[in-house]
């Protein structure tokens, strides 16, 4: 009788551990997939930005004859983004290069009043600004998903199962290095 009781307690303990393990594993998978899905949203907004670049380049090409190197750098950055594997560090770096090139192009557009007044350019710049805002929102959401995932992966007792299931911490999206520098403001003299 005593042996049966010990066996029943051991079976109950094993069932609890097995149930906890299954629930924790499923939760780890759920939050990892949520982070993956959120990264896909960031990628979708990057793609939207990449799709706007040829239109913007064509719209300003005729006026910016002397800015060919800038347009070439923008085309190179776009090509690097499109050729990099999705989700790879190379693709993130290419997206950051693309962002810097677009910033330089927008600075040039601001310097040419005839460009600013062109309806097509104004519409494309508005679309690009909206896309940049969407990218910022999606990056923030991605970082929040990564925070939830990393917390779960590193907290006890789920960290025990995370180690066995190869659930390592994920990297947050960080801004490229020049983002921390204050922008230069050059106002014309009164």
TrEMBL record:
A GO CC annotation recorded here is:
membrane
How this chain sits in the membrane, per its record, is: Single-pass membrane protein
Q: Which UniProt keywords apply?
A: Membrane, Transmembrane, Transmembrane helix
Entry keyword Transmembrane helix: yes
- Establish whether keyword Membrane is in the entry: yes
Q: What family does the entry list?
A: Belongs to the LemA family.
Protein name in UniProt: LemA family protein
């Amino acid at each position: 009788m005593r042996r049966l009781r010990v066996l029943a307690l051991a079976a109950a303990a094993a069932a609890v551990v097995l149930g906890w393990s299954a629930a924790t594993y499923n939760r780890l998978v759920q939050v990892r997939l949520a982070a993956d899905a959120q990264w896909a949203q960031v990628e979708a907004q990057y793609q939207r930005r990449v799709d706007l670049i040829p239109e913007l380049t064509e719209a300003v090409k005729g006026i910016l004859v002397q800015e060919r190197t800038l347009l070439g750098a923008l085309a190179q950055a776009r090509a690097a983004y499109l050729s990099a594997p999705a989700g790879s560090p190379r693709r993130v770096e290419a997206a950051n290069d693309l962002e810097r090139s677009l910033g330089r192009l927008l600075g040039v557009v601001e310097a040419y009043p005839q460009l600013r007044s062109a309806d097509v350019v104004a519409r494309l710049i508005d679309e690009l600004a909206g896309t940049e805002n969407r990218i910022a929102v999606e990056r923030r959401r991605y970082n929040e998903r990564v925070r939830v995932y990393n917390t779960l992966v590193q907290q006890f007792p789920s960290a025990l199962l995370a180690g066995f299931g190869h659930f390592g911490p994920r990297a947050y999206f960080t801004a490229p290095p020049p983002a921390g520098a204050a922008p230069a403001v050059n106002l014309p003299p009164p």
